[in-house]
Amino acid sequence: MTQIRFKELVKAVVVFASLVSSNHTFAQQAITFVGQTVDQTDFLALGFGQTAYYFPQFGANNAVTERATNDNMRLSVPSWLGFQFDISAPDRTFSPDAGLIDLGPPLVFGVYSEGGKSDWDSFTLPDGSTGRSGSVVDLATSDNSNNTVNRIQLGSNVPSSFFLRIVIDNTNLEHNPVSRLAARGDSDNGGGFDVRETLTNLTVNGTTDIYSFRYDNFVPGDFIKIQLNSGDLNIGAGFGGLMFDVIPDANFDQDNDIDGADFLTWQKGFGMGTTFSEGDANYNESIDSTDLSFWEAQFGTSLPPLAATRSVPEPSIATLLALGALSLLIKPKHVTA
Ligand SMILES: [Ca+2]
Ligand SMILES: [Ca+2]
Ligand SMILES: [Ca+2]
Ligand SMILES: [Ca+2]
Predict the structure, then answer these.
(1) Residue 228 contacts residue 180 (beta carbons within 8 Å)
(2) Which of 45, 76, 123, 334 has the fewest CB neighbours in a 10 Å radius?
(3) Considering the entire predicted model, what is its pTM?
(4) Ligand 4 center from residue 238 Cα (angstroms)
């Protein structure tokens, strides 16, 4: 066991011991910053965004600005991630706080998109397509904090753990949320809550970085918010894209091992099914060779990953510790601590 893995085990023990000793149930929502990926533009190579992604104003040939947030976007999201681009809808994804952007047609309201600039980084997206990056820009974050992402609504089938990855620093030092990057969660259910992980004083150098946050125990009706601050009175902050991943789980029948029965489930669901129990290991509502690769990696594993354990049925503390350690050990290698 490497030193790093030992540290992860210790971390798991600490995390789970604190959960066991708290008065809260295991359903308590949490957001944890899990790492920064520095100066990388090839998301396919990183294995990022295998569950979902949103890239605004992607691959524009000429410079454009003040466009709608869904103009020329690349969006691939499962139904449990609700993006709403209608700025007048109550569950709108992007903040209207910047008001009407009226610098000639087209008129847009609130957060806008821009791109096509030759000095911004080019991306390789999770699907392998390449092109110039764009950004969403929120003028209400000019040395002020604003919920640029007002709401990404979580729906049924939301997995109990998932990663949100926020892409910044792709805009040649324009629009960076240097002073604040906060991943938040909130809810309309049960009186609501507000959990957040806030990063300040980010270091940027003009080449793309990705900040990854893990969301735990969010349920349908909860939603994601993202808060930015440029640290400059004249600069609206933004981000170059969002990606989502889950801790893949190939124990489709939820018994105590990952074996041939799970393979048969995947085989039956291949190209047809959309749910975890039909063989969708990464919760992107598509059952394909990627899901098979997760089964191959986990074949022979004798305990189910915690990621799939929606409710913990009165286990012993020792069992919980083992499950927590296992889930950390099998998390994707690209999630840097
Ligand atoms: Ca950078
Ligand atoms: Ca199984
Ligand atoms: Ca089995
Ligand atoms: Ca899948």
Answers:
(1) yes
(2) 45
(3) 0.81
(4) 29
